[in-house]
Structure to design on (175 residues):
């Protein structure tokens, strides 16, 4: 597929906190993959077709084999997660803000969007007999014509989130 001009870009950062607020993990900013179906959502919006924009953020276990064999690169043609957790986090529970060139939050629309999700203690629920939930993937989804369209795809080293921990996931999209 031919793409003209600057590419869409996405980055994310994970901050895992213990029950007392201590930072257990800070991934720093890492690139993510904007998948092809994001372009369909954007085209639908530009044509004025009925789109719901960002609809939800999904998290998943991925595959345990990734822990020893290495995390595979995200597939730009992906339409969903390998092993999603249900329920996903609805857009109404995400914080979405515009950011300027210096990544400061601003009220007016810009070509940069920041999405923040807080996975509170107990979400996702640990998988018995484990005492943690192994997170290895996530994806941001929009809705167009009643169908979910993946926007970005992340596969990462496993994060074991126990029931008392909080994970803050910050995603930045650059258009």
């Amino acid at each position: 597929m031919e793409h003209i001009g600057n590419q869409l870009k996405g980055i994310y950062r994970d901050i895992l906190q213990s029950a007392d607020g201590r930072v257990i993990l800070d991934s720093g900013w890492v690139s993510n993959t904007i998948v092809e179906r994001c372009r369909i959502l954007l085209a639908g919006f530009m044509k004025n077709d009925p789109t719901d924009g960002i609809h939800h953020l999904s998290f998943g276990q991925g595959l345990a084999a990734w822990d020893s064999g290495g995390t595979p690169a995200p597939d730009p043609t992906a339409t969903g997660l390998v092993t999603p957790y249900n329920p996903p986090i609805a857009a109404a529970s995400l914080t979405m803000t515009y950011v300027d060139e210096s990544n400061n939050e601003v009220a007016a629309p810009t070509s940069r969007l920041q999405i923040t999700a807080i996975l509170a203690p107990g979400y996702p629920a640990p998988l018995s007999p484990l005492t943690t939930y192994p997170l290895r993937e996530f994806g941001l989804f929009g809705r167009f014509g009643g169908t979910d369209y993946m926007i970005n795809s992340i596969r990462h080293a496993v994060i074991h989130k126990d029931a008392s921990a909080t994970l803050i996931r910050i995603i930045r999209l650059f258009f």
Observations:
- The chain has one domain: 9-174.
